[in-house]
Amino acid sequence: MCWPRCGRVRAEPVEIIESIEDLRLARRRLSGRVGLVPTMGALHPGHLSLVDHAWDENDVVIATIFVNPAQFGPNEDLSAYPRDPDGDLAKLTAAGVDIVFTPTPAVIYPPGFQTYIEVTEVSQGLEGAHRPGHFRGVATVVAKLFNLTQPDRAYFGQKDAQQVAVLQHMVRDLNFPLEMVVCPTVREADGLAMSSRNVYLNAEQRRAAPVLYRALQAAAAAYDSGERHPQRLREIVRSVVADEPLGLADYVSVADARNLQEQDTETDAPLLVSLTVRFGQTRLLDNCLLPFSLNTREHLGRVLGAG
Ligand code: AMP
Questions:
Q1: What is the DSSP string of 229-298?
Q2: pLDDT of 123-179, one tens digit each?
Q3: What distance in angstroms lies between residue 156's CA and the mean position of ligand 1's atoms?
Q4: Is the pTM here over 0.90, yes or no?
Q5: Which ligand 1 atom is at minimum distance from the Cα of 185?
Q6: Of 21, 69, 181, 197, which residue has the fewest beta carbons closer than 10 angstroms?
């Protein structure tokens, strides 16, 4: 494959927009199918895979870069979150994106802002339990981006599976006229899920970090051999992580992938196995669906958050 993709190279430079007014004007000018790729920047090939998927099935691609204060807790890494505006624009230009929306927090949350969206049930467990208010911030900003860009399709990564489930519900419950597309997690060669936060890892922690994927693979292998008991699957994941002295498992979850309810008894439901592991101050997140054959774009969108 050539890069930027053959036939996708834009004749005109990418349009960079910072204000709501300019975005609305630009949106009115667009015709054809519009794909939206929302991000927080510090872009890596995982993000760019969403752009590729968007290119495959839309006439226009809009990417957004916004580090959303509303989804960070008071003790989280908002001010330290990696930022690379010039690198991001170069990557999005090379990827052939048409419009990049990069608002400041004051544009998204002007003085007097007081309207938030809560997706109540599916936001509660997993990341929601560890990061109070996180999904309220995510749902609110994504709803605003949907309203502003009016996409036909919006692209999200499996990497943030609960985010997908929350947004699937929001789209259904509030009748957003768009299709959610869920793209498989892009990994480094050693299995580590690509993440903007991986830059926080020191060399030793980076070498240890593929333990998350190894733990998921161990659960998948047990599942393939017939193991269906959620508690035993959790123990398998925990025991792989416990063998890695630099990593400390935060939570390990085996939930029904459709509603994210934690499972306690043997089940044939599609399962979302997810875990977070701390390496010093850095908390990494990963997941997979079981059966493992469900980890394709075709199934992810149908299963995650479906019930
Ligand atoms: P973020 O910038 O972390 O908010 O991520 C923006 C979008 O990229 C979200 O839909 C993420 O789920 C997705 N994403 C992040 N990392 C990956 C990855 N390794 N593979 C695929 N998608 C990803």
A1: -HHHHHHHHHHHHHT-TT-EEEEEEEEETTT--B--S---S-EEEEEEEEETTEEEEEEEEESGGG-SHH
A2: 999 999 999 999 999 999 999 999 999 999 999 999 999 999 999 999 999 999 999
A3: 7
A4: yes
A5: 20
A6: 21
